[in-house]
Amino acid sequence: MTHPSASRFRPAVAALLLLSLAACQNEPAAPAEGRFVRVVTVEAGKLANEIQLSGEIQAEKNVGLAFRIGGRVTERPVNVGDRVAVGQIVARLDPTLERNALTAAKAALEAARGEVNTTRSTFERQERLMAQGFTTRPRFDQALKAQEAAQAQLENAEAQLELAQDRLGFTELRAGVAGTVTARNVEPGEVVQPGQAVAQLARDDGRDAVFNIPANLLEKKSGETTVRVALADAPAVTALGRVREIAPQADPVTRTFAVRVGLIDPPEAMRLGSTVVGTIEAATAAIIAIPASALAQQGVSPAVWIVDPANSTVSLRNVDVLRFDPSQVIVSQGLAPGEIVVSGGIQMLLPGQRVRQLPAPTAAGRTAAASQAAGRPAVPPS
Description:
This protein is of the alpha+beta class. The protein is built from 4 helices and 22 strands.
């Protein structure tokens, strides 16, 4: 049942509404203003990923020590792990045969010298007689040839003496460089052949960190990649190095490539055989990072709103996302450095809509926002 007084007020209310609508139609339309949004300018960068690999410390150069002559080993005063200096004796051979050969060479030299003196005296006498006409040409020539043969024998005896002295010296194997003995291959009493390795020496003039790396991680240019190497049991002990050598062929079992990294001034704690961890920073091609709040969607593809600086209008553009991070999105394609992207207020945007950029927050504004986020009242500046 309707109240009688309500029926009397309905015509008056309707009249007031009609007058209000007519007044609104007669007023001029307000100019369209842009929607306030927050924007960021696109900047190019590189995405770095750290790759860690395990390896070991090895000598940059290894030297095999061997005798130049064969014989029986009588002494080997060094063992694995010993440090040797330049000229230090590593092993000795039995010198009996070489000493006897040296004695025989000395005797042959003395005999050759005596023969030279004899033939020289004979030739000088024949030369005087030839000048006086008291000898024949054949005897003179014979004395000359005998002197030349004796001189040749003397030179041969001198060479044999030097050879015998050298062979006696070869019975002592000395280190030509300083280093550490990493292997011994013979024991005293064994008979060795010339050139047979007696010991292995790791030189002190360089250290390498050796890693086994899959083919997809190999750098195309050796020497340009910097590797940070740290001891596995003491990460604070570090050294920098550069790729020095890459094996041309993969290991037949592991299918990995041995990569040698030359260390730059490695600390003493990085001893041979130590386990190390190498860290390589692998940078991708140029990428772009934008705030996560800037990411929109167009159909099933991710997209962003691009601001046209000429007329302050926006348009939606598809992008390829490489990676999602908590606070940002890594875009691989779709954006160019210098473009303006809407980072805040994308919910109500339409293609072609005019926008206005919000001013950058001041220090006081950031403080107030932080206080409100923490639940504290903002304190106005004095």
